[in-house]
Structure formats: C-alpha cells, structure tokens
Amino acid sequence: MPYTTEFMTFAVKQGAEKRAAEWMALLVQRQVDCVATLDREHMHFESIFKSERNSRTYLSWYSVQGESGANVKSSPLEIDRLHMEFWRECIDPDVPPEKFVHLVNFLPAVVQEALEVREVSLRESAA
Question: Which tens digits make up the pLDDT trace of 14-26?
C-alpha cells in the first residue's frame, strides 16, 4: 500500500511562542473538527510535538498519509483555514524545516491491514 510516513520539525518565530501555544490549544479544543479533516487528506495518523532547543521553540509533525489525499491548503474547512493562518503567523520561514529520513515502520499485521482497507475505501469514495 502506498503511503508516506513523515516526521518534520519547524521553528516557531521568535516572539510568537504564546501564539503558537494558542494554536495548539485551538487544535486540542477542536480535535473533533481536526479528525474530520483526515479523510479528505487521506491522513491515517497525525501527531504534533513541541520541543525547545537553544532558547527556541519547535513544533514537529509526525504523519502517516496516503499518496492520493488532498492538500490542506485547498481545504474548504474552517479548521484548516485557521490552521494555515496560525502556520503563517507562527512558523519561521527563514529557518529551514528539519525533515527526518524515514527508514522503517513496525506495524502489527492487523494495523497494516486496517491502513490498507482504509486507504482503498478513501480512494473509492474520492472517485
């Protein structure tokens, strides 16, 4: 089954840490809305992490996504619009993101099968 596993880290603009915390709080508060966007993007799993290094805040995304999903930037959904507004406000475009090279997934067969069934279902519903 074709899908992409990613882990990427982005620097938060200096001085935007409080706003980034508000962004993450919004996503937590509206978790149901966020989950509702996943099918459209063929996103099977998404997690966000926060870290601090050298007096700098970073946000990291881990995701497992099917290859034929829609881009968040084309979404008509309010939560995606808000998410992209916060992104532009908080993520520092002058600091290159750190993209980790994916090497391997370890999944029980039942989880792998569930991902495959879900991806086929999403592709068929999009057709």
Answer: 999 999 999 999 9
User: If you ran DSSP here, which 8-state letter would residue 91 be given?
Assistant: B
Residue 83's H or E segment, with its range, is helix 78-90
In 1-55, alpha helices (H)? 17-29, 31-41
In 3D, which of 73, 62, 82 has the Cα closest to residue 19?
A: 82
Q: What is the dihedral of CA 117, 28, 40, 76, to 10 degrees?
A: 170
- Whole-number pLDDT of residue 1: 55
Torsion angle of alpha carbons 33, 44, 84, 93, nearest 10°?
Answer: 150
Delineate the domains of the chain, giving CATH numbers in brackets.
3-126 (3.30.70.100)
Using CA atoms, how far apart are residues 80 and 57, in angstroms rounded to an integer?
22
What sign results for the dihedral spanned by CA atoms 21, 25, 42, 100?
Answer: positive
Tokens of residue 33, six digits: 């809305």
Q: What is the dihedral of CA 125, 65, 103, 52, to 10 degrees?
A: -170
